[in-house]
Design a protein that fits this description.
Shape: globular
Structural class: alpha/beta
Number of strands: 16
Helix content: 25-40%
Largest sheet: 7 strands, mixed
Number of helices: 9
Strand content: 25-35%
Radius of gyration: 20 Å
């Protein structure tokens, strides 16, 4: 196809604009693999890019979307051939490299992961960067030495994309999951996907004490700021928190007390530039450790035409779980 449908972001007099349009094949960026995109997804970062609420996009024009799953059309990369089923997340797509909200993408073959056996392309995007990040967090906690015997684990922003997958995976692995949310109406949903307890996010929003009562052995935090400070102050001796988000801000109003008096560890999680081997490991674990029934429960499907509308919703905290975007 000489042109294809895409969500194009352009620079405007004030901010940016995002619109579904026809994109010319000749405008695709350099890459040694061209993929027919079948499914994408909606992450918090996508919402920021689509709305222009943060300077996520670094070049214009830009095709939005940081994740895709699809089929290789052409390849000059030795690892991939036409017909291969692949997944791509991060690597600056939708930021510095033309992204996934399009019928076609051209990327570096080194960025791709083979679609794990047993996962459909739709399943992979129901997981997406959010679920991939959640699994990287779980792997980091396991590497630290945490197990279900260590004690309860906490998940913040539990009704969101990262939180929903983290809750589902940790519960399947046998952990007692304490889910923190600001949406009381989602309590039944969180229990259905594996939460053993629900706490209101307000319990974690006040100024953090240097040390508070020990409540959990570890956790996955996608909120940051004061919430993360409180998590650290309430983590048991020798525990760890995997930090992977900043919905509440980039600051960390904490002290060294949890680290030097309780031996707590703060584990930083990055999904964008994560090396390929940990990527493969995370996707294989997602294929085995994420209950497909629960994945279905946390997923809502939209067409490409509705992406911009839902981008505003995810920033407003109106999205539960995961959104998959049907491209073809």
């Amino acid at each position: 196809m000489a042109t294809f449908k895409a969500i194009r972001i352009d620079k405007a007099d004030k901010g940016t604009t995002a619109a579904l349009t026809q994109f010319d094949d000749s405008e695709l960026m350099d890459g040694d693999v061209t993929v027919r995109v079948e499914w994408s997804t909606l992450n918090y970062k996508d919402g920021l890019a689509l709305t222009g609420k943060a300077p996520v996009v670094r070049r214009f024009p830009m095709i939005a979307g940081i994740d895709f799953a699809g089929t290789v059309e052409t390849s000059a990369h030795p690892q991939w051939k036409a017909g291969d089923r692949v997944v791509c997340t991060g690597w600056g797509m939708g930021e510095t490299h033309l992204g996934a909200y399009a019928e076609k993408a051209r990327v570096k073959g080194d960025w791709l992961v083979a679609l794990p056996q047993g996962l459909s392309a739709r399943d992979a995007m129901a997981i997406g960067t959010a679920g991939f990040t959640a699994m990287l967090s779980v792997l980091a906690l396991e590497k630290h030495g945490l197990s279900p015997k260590s004690g309860p684990v906490v998940v913040t922003g539990a009704a969101g994309g990262v939180g929903s997958v983290a809750t589902a995976v940790l519960s399947k692995l046998g952990y007692h999951v304490i889910a923190s949310t600001g949406r009381a109406s989602e309590a039944d949903y969180l229990k259905e996907i594996g939460a053993a307890e629900i706490i209101d996010r307000n319990e974690l929003s006040a100024a953090a004490k240097p040390l508070a009562k020990e409540r959990w052995a570890g956790g996955v935090d996608s909120v940051g700021s004061t919430t993360l400070a409180n998590l650290l102050s309430m983590t048991k001796y020798g525990g760890a928190i995997a930090a992977c988000g900043l919905a509440a801000g980039m600051d960390l109003p904490s002290s060294v007390a949890p680290f030097i008096l309780r031996g707590v560890c703060l584990l930083g999680i990055d999904s964008v530039m994560c090396p390929i081997e940990p990527r493969k490991a995370a996707w294989q674990r997602l294929a085995s450790d994420l209950d497909r029934t629960k994945l279905s429960e946390i997923t809502h499907e939209i067409p490409l035409e509705e992406v911009s509308e839902w981008g505003a919703k995810i920033l407003a905290g109106q999205v539960r779980g995961r959104i998959v975007v049907k491209i073809l």
